[in-house]
Amino acid sequence: MNIFIITVGSRGDVQPYVALGKGLKGAGHSVTICTCSNFESFITKHGLNYGYMNDGLMKLFDSEVGREAIESGGNLLGSIKTMLTLLKEAKALNREMFKDAWNAAQAANPDIIIFHPKAMAGSHIAEKLGIPAIMAIPIPMIVPTAESVAIGFPNLKLGRWYNKISYTLLHKGYHTYDDVINEFRQELLGIIKLPKSTSPIQMANGKLIPILHGYSELVSPRPRDWLNTAHVTGYWFLDRENDWQAPVELMDFLEAGEKPVYVGFGSMAGRNPQRMANIVIDALQKAKVRGIIATGWGGLDLRNLTETIFKIDKIPHSWLFPRVSAVVHHGGAGTTAAGLRAGRPTIVCPFLVDQHYWGERVYALGVGSKPIPQKKLTAKKLAEAIREVTREVTTDRVIRQNAATLGEKIRQEEGIANAIAIIESIPEQRAQKLSET
């Protein structure tokens, strides 16, 4: 098959789809990934076709107003504020992204479309082309369940009715973009307006969209009342290239003492990255551990480091994490997955809504400390958490053993193979239904 994948966001929103794309290519399919242009080389170096999309949305989130929105996006009210702050600009950018995705899809001539829910053009392009659409997401936040509240909503513990309502409200949020979507459908695609009753997990005709969740049930169990169109496949890991070599300086640092603690916040740094850097450095020194700090896209500003702290920019987590004693990060789905796979204790310092969810899951599974929201992050709190998961005492050995056991189980899963099997079955099911009618 000719498979077209659309995704939007930071590296954590792109890397799992590259991993899935490589798996699909290995299974004999042609794969094009359409996403922001700053990821073009990342996609093509892995042997996949690239479909152009402008990177305006990424620039918006890396702007001053975007960083301010990130800092206020830790809960429902913060998320609403974020949406309202960025909505006007985000709508204009989505208009252009929809056009780019449509142009790229026409060039790719796909048999099936796989899309991240943030790439809202996906299902509409599939409808226009008369081909199947599959939603793919690394977070359990869009399929309704009465078993738990929707990610980002306050967990008021009011019962099943409240949990269900939270998803209804979440789905209504997607209708904020109805004007942009209908403009796209009518003016570019030449199809009718989207019915107001349509949810983000439906096609315009009301048919449910198959949904692949790229994470492990060991970490987030599948709700018993989920729709049968929702699947949990296991993680989609992108392992490093065989020819990748670690810098000599890093190897020397790793060999010079005890295993260090990794600290990295990915694309999250807020408006004051130097404050974050100072907290991290101070915490590592208070905990009396060696550290590796990743500056990443967030731009942490690190100066005057001691010989016990090593600074890196970007490095494959699959290589580094097995070589550290613990991982400290923002709780992005991909980074959380990499730390758990490596079997390392985790400390999550969340910025945004789904990051809080993964932090709570880490704590509930007994594989890390209680999450520390970035708004409440101090050097003292971080140092205490580091000591909790690294010291040689009975309680902490349980955390480390739990993490090691979970990591071993995750490494045995076949998330990409499971996803491919479902993807390959969709056109066959569709053809069978058409023949029956």
TrEMBL record:
It holds the Pfam family EryCIII-like_C. Keywords: Transferase. CDD domains: GT1_Gtf-like. InterPro entries: EryCIII-like_C, Glycosyltransferase_28, GlycoTrans_28_N, UDP_glucos_trans. Residues 300-408 form the Erythromycin biosynthesis protein CIII-like C-terminal domain. Residues 3-140 form the Glycosyltransferase family 28 N-terminal domain. It comes from the Bacteria. GO terms for biological process: carbohydrate metabolic process; vancomycin biosynthetic process. One of its GO terms (molecular function) is UDP-glycosyltransferase activity. PANTHER family: STEROL 3-BETA-GLUCOSYLTRANSFERASE, STEROL 3-BETA-GLUCOSYLTRANSFERASE UGT80A2. This is Glycosyl transferase, UDP-glucuronosyltransferase.
